[in-house]
Please model this.
Amino acid sequence: MSKVEAYKKLIRQFYAGSLEGTAKENFAKYFEDSEFLEAWEQLMEEELDENTSFKEPDSAFLFFKIKNDERVKDVLTDIPNHSSSKIKIIKSIVAAAVMLLVGIVAFLIWNEHNKTDNLAYIQIVDAELEVLPGTNKAQIILENGSRIDLEKIKGDTVIDNGDFEIVKTADGSISYRAKYPSNEVSKLVYNTIVTPGGGEYKLNLPDGTRVWLNAKTVLRYPVQFNKQIREIEMTGEAYFEIAKQIYQGKRVPFIIHTGAQKLEVLGTVFNLQNYGQNIVTTLLEGKVKLNFKDGSQEEQYLLPDEQTTFNSADQRVKKIQVDPFYFSAWKDGKFAFEKIAIEEVMATISRWYDVEVIFKDQLTDFQFSGTISKYEDINRLLQTIELVGGIHFQLKGRRIYVMK
Model:
């Protein structure tokens, strides 16, 4: 269910007089959300379409009537006088008054015929608390500190930034294009892309390297690399396909700084994860070399199907053979686990669905194996894990309680 549809249900309950609890207390706050206004306007249009014989009353009279309605009269006083959204809100409230006068009977009938659906929805209580899978969303922070919200930029859009352009393609990915590619780079200009909880994004770096960023990831990179070396910084998780680059007959190194680890690419395809104390590098193709800042560990080389875990707390490196599928499936829309501790499974779910996980019982011996769509309904996802036995979940708002 989309957020707009969730808001529509809340509005229907509001007019039917069945809105209770947190949702009723927070109803006035929803006016600050453009999607709430959109939901209200959509309902108004639907009701007017169904009542075409109704002659629309004078809007000023309607506004006066709705403004003094006990249920919403405080809403307008909370809106700044100079808010750019005030006109839209007033328009929506007027539209809602029309809807109230001509549609309340229809809403009551609708509620009578949909009692089961309403009861299921009331368990959510608040549209803001509905848990949905992650989507393509991220922000780019420019060198001057200004931000670009990529979710609000349409596909096939070119953003001009002086010497370079940022291109959002039709599929939603971001690419960089230098206006003067033959020029020597005298000073590196950096951008940073940030994905929030419940977000992911695909980025094509200026050299053609392709990067898939998982939730809660930060990647800092130059908008144009110099010719001798390519260096970026990262925290979070990303899947890389490195573009090969040659300058004066020599391979141009590609280096990723991740906390205390420095990764030099000697191959092409790998997954790099850095959440908390562990830096996990999984190689799919080619070869990589790892160095560590304090010098206590010898440099490591990875071959395909090998993985290192560097613990920054105890400064230890562990290298093992793995099936890379389980560490790169997220890029292709799947959760894939093989005998993974429930704490790690729930940490992955927490980042993707942007929820808080609380363990009510100790489950140190519980491990989970399976492959599930990342875009599954959260309740079905949790039910799938429960099928293993020995574990139960309770979803309350944006919190998941884990217990025996």
User: Anything to note?
Assistant: Residues 50-68, 73-88, 100-127 have pLDDT under 50 and may be disordered. The first strand starts at residue 135 and ends at 136. The longest helix spans residues 86-113.
